[in-house]
Amino acid sequence: MRRRTILTSAAAALMLAPAGRLFAQAGGEALAADHPLQAAWRSWKNAFLLPAGRIVDGPQQNASHSEGQGYGATLAAIFGDEEALRRIVDWTEANLARREDKLLSWRWLPGVALAVPDENNATDGDLFYAWGLAMAAQRFGKADYAGRATELARAIALHCVRPHPDGSERLVLLPGATGFETPDGVVLNPSYYMPRALTELAAFSGQDRLARCARDGADWIASLGLPPDWALVTAFGTQPAPGLSHNSGYDALRVPLFLLWSGLTANPALRRAVETAGGSASVDTPVRFDRETGAVLERSADPGFRAVQALGDCALSGRPGAAIPPFDARQPYYPATLHLMALVAQVEGFSACVPI
User: Fold this and answer.
1) Percent helix, strand and coil across the chain, each rounded to 5?
2) Taking the model in full, what pTM does it have?
3) What's the CATH architecture for 11-353?
């Protein structure tokens, strides 16, 4: 499972939270200490969060990524875990915050002389890290979190948001500050768009370009059919990105989850992804597809992938109850994290989809 290949429609369907209503969890508050999901959060922490605050991705050389640190920061804020958040922030700032533009370097490797061999950023990691800090600033009353979230929001808007190659007023979200603009167009990753995070961070920081990018990104994703892992966007449309996966695979698995979490259930890409996967009952969940034929290229028994599919099934079917499996921290970091996020999205936005 290699998710990191490189790092060097409609407006009517867009139902993003209004700017004044930040952080959709009721009252803008963290999940209560006695909420049933707290047990899953504790299991996730025990499996993937080291005491120093580093989140470990075992299958990826036991590395830590800005993505994982960002996911961890967001989840810690959602679960009201200020102690875990502080550890995550301290480690991230000490080890990944090394760029002059204030973005995070994307990967840290243990046991090597050069722990950060590539200082380029990963925009999704920066986005989730900033979103988590913004939530934490409001929930825990921490001015330093607010300042860092605003600094990151400004940096993302300045260095990672670009005009669409077609010369229109639309904006695109680069996967990193450098290495994704070519003479033919821009290389994009649909799963790097998390519309709710972009919109709420824009409202928190005053960076309206992020909210515009969320709207334009959701519209672009709606036009894709089955979302690819990577795509080249040109002045004339979307096509495969040379040298990168144009299948719908491990990266693209996040697209339906982030659409659900953002409340964008009318986005056509969500229905296409859910219908192509063909239901959530199978233990071996389809995780990689040929975009041209819809043929399943790979399956996984990790329950986190099944959780995302089950939430999508329930949200689109209108039937109560979702076949979301119980959280299991024995699976690898990536499906375990998607699993926990799916459970959070269910609690926050899909009360009828209680796991059954």
Assistant:
1) 45, 10, 45
2) 0.93
3) Alpha/alpha barrel (1.50)
